[in-house]
Amino acid sequence: MAKKVVVGMSGGVDSSVAAYLLKEQGYDVIGVTMQIWQDEEREQQEENGGCCGLSAVDDARRVAQRLDIPYYVMNFKEEFKCKVMDYFVEEYLVGRTPNPCIACNRYVKWESMLKRSMDIGADYIATGHYARIAKLSNGRYAIRNSVTAKKDQTYALYNLTQEQLAHTLMPIGEYTKEEIRKIAEEAGLPVAHKPDSQEICFIPDHDYAAFIDREAGGRVPGPGHFVTTDGQVLGNHLGITHYTVGQRKGLNLAMGHPVFVTQIRPETDEVVIGEAEDVFGDTLYCNRINYMGMEDLTEPRTVLAKIRYAHAGEQCLIEKAGKDIIKCTFVKPVRAITPGQAVVFYEDGYVLGGGSIMEPSLPE
Fold this sequence. Notes:
Elements: E1 4-8, H1 13-24, E2 28-35, H2 42-48, H3 55-67, E3 71-75, H4 77-93, H5 100-119, E4 124-126, E5 131-135, E6 141-145, H6 162-166, E7 168-169, H7 177-186, H8 208-216, E8 224-227, E9 233-237, E10 260-265, E11 270-274, E12 280-291, E13 301-306, E14 314-322, E15 325-335, E16 342-347, E17 350-357
Parallel strand pairs: 1-2, 1-4, 2-3, 4-7, 8-11
Antiparallel strand pairs: 5-6, 8-9, 10-11, 12-15, 12-17, 13-14, 13-16, 14-15, 16-17
Helix pairs in contact: 1-3, 1-7, 4-5, 4-8
């Protein structure tokens, strides 16, 4: 009897080809689109059409019809609001820069969807991520880099659990984007040339500060001061939710040369400004650790670490600095170590684990 797999179908080419490949491999495939935040106007749907827009349902349903597989829409609005949107707002309110895709992957696309899929008798769930899953010699499952560095999505998947990985398939990781589009074209899938979605799905106009204002209401910090590291006031800013570490544009400071945000101080509503070299650092601390390829960090270990999605990675030494805290010391300084973002550890192309970047100094 064929193994049953629920494929999360976003209406895009990647998840559509994932469904096609799995059916070709003999799986009993069910297509599912997660309804998570969709209340936008039709014009926005057509314009954005990203992984979560309502138009995704139309495209995914057409692909399912083409593949002759069952197709359903599952409502995850409550989970998405709590685990992703509220988290996004709360992090900005305290001066951190969150990564909502990581939270969505762990708590919605996997935790919630996997549970519902298991409830209906599925053996696996599958997605269109550019990543692979391997079982290592130590018996643990780990995310592995895809064959194409250009589209690799392993960074945003570091937080998955062993249980989730054991019940997940990622068929796209063996292909390049160009190969995926060619497969879609040859299979006659109607989304073969659909553009990739961009930015954060629930903020289609990309105005994060306005979204936070709407969601948080009277709790949003008001204007404050731009300051130097030693507290010298340089000017006024719009509120800390408008800024992130490393930012240069939109500061409206007449300094005569480019300056950058080096730190956000939520307790005083101050945004610290510095020179280009001040944005670089060689040490960070992270917590909320998720171990993946390794069961624990028992002794210092040299790894490749990425501090943001588009970061190529840098060699660093990781060692424990307390319960659920890891200290990372980079061989070469890295740019814009940003509290709230993830740091992900790699070894030989496999994800060992990762955590959430804390403030730049050693926590109390």
